[in-house]
Amino acid sequence: YPDKLNTSAVVLNDGETQGTTSRQGAIVVGLGMVGELTPGGLTSTMADALTNYALACLEAERKRRLAFSEDLAVAQTLAIPVTTLLIGTSGGGLTLPDSLKSILHGVLQANRRLSLLEPSKTGDSDREESSDTSLKGFIDTVEIVELYRDRAILAAKALLGLAKAQDFRER
Asked: pTM of the predicted model, to two decimals?
């Protein structure tokens, strides 16, 4: 499993569980050595991991549409929800606000990368012509899970403060 910063593993649900959950899979991120995590390191790790996850979700959706002979041009933007834990706040060396800010910056960076993707051509070897899938995706929802109520309340308050920050306004 991932251990170094900027490494991740993406595991998508198989075809049998697709459609039974709103979450398409899981991401495991490498955070490096305990206590050495920085806000910048978490941001870049999350950006890489979320980009890889979104690309895997897009590819799975393309395959699903091809398998069911659906029009690939319909719903050209795939909204991808993500759920995360607070990362690096328990012995990881980050404050709760720094963790939240880094996670959200990672989401913004991943979405910027996804917006720059060129439309792809997908065609079967049996067919002469390709169809322009131009399916794009973006992370539309970030849900943060915290087990302990006091930390969840602190996180909610920190998120309210971040919502007012220039970096996150209207995004």
From this structure: 0.85
| Burial class, 54, CB count within 10 angstroms (exposed 0-12 / middle 13-18 / buried 19+) | buried
Whether the pLDDT of residue 123 is over 50: the answer is no
Half-sphere exposure in the Cβ direction for 132 (13 Å, CA) = 4
18 Cβ contact partners less than 8 Å away, ≥ 6 residues apart: 24, 60, 64
Contact 131/102 with Cβ under 8 angstroms?
A: no
List the structure tokens of 17. Answer: 């569980």
CA distance 86 to 131: 41
Tokens of 3: 């251990």
Arithmetic mean of pLDDT, 20-35: 83
Q: What whole-number distance in Å separates Cα of residue 141 and Cα of residue 80?
A: 7
DSSP string covering the chain: ---STT-EEEEEPPTTTTTSSS--EEEEE---STT---HHHHHHHHHHHHHHHHHHHHHHHHHHHHHTT--TTSS-EEEEEEEEE--S-SSSS--HHHHHHHHHHHHHHHHHHHHTPPPPEE--TT-SS-EE---EEEEEEEEEE-SSHHHHHHHHHHHHHHHTSTTTTT-
Is the model's pLDDT at 20 over the cut of 60? Answer: no
